[in-house]
Amino acid sequence: MAAAATAQLALDGPGMDGSLFTSVTDFARDTKWLNRPMEVWTNIGLGVFAILMIAGWWTARRRGPRAMTVALAAPVAVLTAFAATEVIKKLVAEVRPCRSMPHAYLVDTCPAPSDYSFPSGHAAVAAATVAALFLLDRRLSAVAAAFAVLEGFSRVYVGAHYPHDVLGSAAVALPVAYLVSWVLRRWATPLVGSLSQGSLRPLLTTELITTASARQAVSAGDPL
Q1: Hey, where are the domains in the chain?
Q2: Tens of pLDDT along 176-187?
Q3: How far apart are CA 110 and CA 115, in angstroms?
Q4: Least crowded by CB within 10 Å, which of 3, 16, 69, 149?
Q5: pTM of this structure
């Protein structure tokens, strides 16, 4: 019964955008000099999003408890969005392109059959970082968006995902990450303001401020 339900939910990747997928993988076949760099980037490139979140935390130290709350919320938001996409991936159970379109040119190795295609976890991390940084620093969010586009394209280029897998991950990760960041900014700012006065102060602020001034900054909302 469970297997039948999963089969009904599974997406027909080739039927949805298989021609677009093969257009990209044909491009990969014609640009073999780019295969290795894209294969490296599609995995190692995720570190760029971690660096951007660290940069957001570093700058937030000079901007008060509200900004610091958003900076600390960023990895939580990204992990939550990633977890959401992983749940959807198990429910939908779309077969990877390497199994449903085995004659396509593939740069990446084929994962285990239980590693499904929709949505893309890599693209979800990238999109979630964009949303998580949006409430903190629009410039960092814009940089993350540019790298997210490259990450999404690389997932199709190496043959790991269909285009709709990438778009689907963005459709899930963007609102989930934004909502988590917004909720934590709203409810956790007083806690971060309080922690900024204790032993964690060097990690949370560059200011030598009193408890009274910290409470005032938290209650004022300390605009980003």
Answers
A1: 17-187
A2: 999 999 999 988
A3: 9
A4: 3
A5: 0.83
